[in-house]
């Protein structure tokens, strides 16, 4: 329903208010959460719950999306010509598609090995995924969300949120990746070290 509302806003926004990019953002956000649930349902059905939508991720997550919409609306009201869909919005749309595509492919490649939570113990069927998109980058799901979130701010042409998002995304993922890679090294030892050496993250300032 939210995705449909976003698509309706795309149509009306293009015809009446030139805010179709806000509709794209809302539809993309709904699609993101839907695909998180679908991947869990397909490959980790025993872990499936309403939390699998990742809607109630954290207060910070909700605040970030609320800030994105608020900044867009305020700047649209005071500087409507600045918010016209243009090259920056097209760049943002490209990054949204790239990010969503990489994250979805990562979940479908890792299958049951994918988890929304960092595990502290190694199950018997837990393997180090190195094929497909994982042969190109170490953390494609993080890469995907990073560029999805940055792309959303380009799409909306939100300069303030763009700067804040880049800062907090780097802080969050650098800390999360460091902890996750510590556990992966504990689980897989030399196999992980060799894989890490050959495979970058392709995320800014996170080698």
Features of the shown structure:
mainly alpha; globular; Four Helix Bundle (Hemerythrin (Met), subunit A); 207 residues
Write the layout of secondary structure elements.
Elements: H1 2-17, H2 20-43, H3 59-78, H4 87-110, H5 140-156, H6 159-188, H7 190-198
Helix pairs in contact: 1-2, 2-4, 4-5, 5-6, 6-7
Task: Report on the architecture of this protein.
This protein has 207 residues and is mainly alpha-helical. The protein has a domain at 58-198: Four Helix Bundle (Hemerythrin (Met), subunit A), CATH 1.20.120. The protein has 7 helices and no strands. It catalyses: [protein]-C-terminal S-[(2E,6E)-farnesyl]-L-cysteine + S-adenosyl-L-methionine = [protein]-C-terminal S-[(2E,6E)-farnesyl]-L-cysteine methyl ester + S-adenosyl-L-homocysteine. Its main location: endoplasmic reticulum. The chain crosses the membrane at residues 22-43, 63-79, 86-106, 145-169. It is a multi-pass membrane protein.
Q: Tell me, briefly, the overall form.
A: globular
Number of strands: 0
At the first level of CATH, the class of one domain is: Mainly Alpha
**Poorly predicted ranges:** none
Q: Main β-sheet: number of strands, strand sense, barrel status? A: none
Remind me, CATH topology of one domain? Four Helix Bundle (Hemerythrin (Met), subunit A)
CA radius of gyration is: 18 Å
* Structural class by helix and strand composition: mainly alpha
Helix content: 55-70%
Whole-number mean pLDDT: 88
Strand content: under 5%
CATH architecture annotation of one domain? Up-down Bundle
Distance between the termini: 39 Å
* Number of helical elements: 7
What is the N-to-C order of secondary-structure elements (H for helix, E for strand)?
HHHHHHH
